[in-house]
Predict the structure.
Amino acid sequence: MLKDGVQISQSLGQMNIHKKNTMTNESVKSKVQSVKIQIEKALANSLPNENTWPVKLHKAQRHALLSPGKRFRPLLCCFVASGLGKEDEAVILVGCVAEMVHAASLILDDLPCMDDADIRRNQPSTHIEFDESTAILSATALLNQAFSVISKLNNVTDKTKVMLVDLLSHTVGSNGLIAGQIADLSNNSSATTLKDVEELNTLKTGALFDFSIESAAILSNASEVKKKHLKEFSRYLGLAFQLMDDVKDKLMSQEIAEKSINRDIGKATILAIKGSSLSMEILTNYLKKSKESLIMADLSNLNAFDVLFESQFSFLKTYQKIK
């Protein structure tokens, strides 16, 4: 058994990343909340009203996209761009693109033929609230809308739009999210190694982190050196996030996890092949490496990421023992 409260506290607290502390902690929290409000408004405005025909489809889309969430991916996009000197509507909207694709992927993940999950964000999954066919069509519509948002960005060159469309196509395609999902469906080999699981997690979870962060770098015209360090930041953050999600599935109640649990039984996850204690050490190391890479990227607002990390990973500190 592992007293993870101590270990995770070290990763979240003692290794703060704000070497450029330009704002107080309270100011950063206020800024994060302000950006999140802008994201919520943009998401709500990105879809037709729920009373627009076909009503059932639009209600299903809004059910999935606008359900309460931390908006971690769009926040990452916005604060990476901000740290690179870019703050405008286009950044907010591209962050929303990441959230649309994320919502679409969750709809599909929850289907009976996939993870067969009834609860998502403490509310019925889309196929439960509506039906399977509506869920599939709403996921397809959300994905299409994501591309539409990019095509209509203001004050963004056509060349940049093409770069973003190409990046998004790769993110959701057969070398990205879809590859990760199909690999996960057959992920039950007892001979699976840590490297195998990391490669799968990089596809099924890391791909959208890559889009959120790389799109911010593209919009900000970041240097190749900064892009390289941000790529490493994204890689380790995605691995940490997926391992955290596996912890939720195995160790938490449905209410705390805010989704159906025990979906990973029989799967070759890091928890399954390494055990709880070593898995928590691996998670701490992922967080450490992600923060080191972010420091190397030399953004102007590193202290903002302390707040984002704390919000996303702090629940781990409440668990004093992992069985």
Remarks:
- The chain has 16 helices and two strands.
- The two ends are 5 Å apart (CA to CA).
- The chain has a mean pLDDT of 87.
- The CA atoms of residues 108 and 136 lie 7 Å apart.
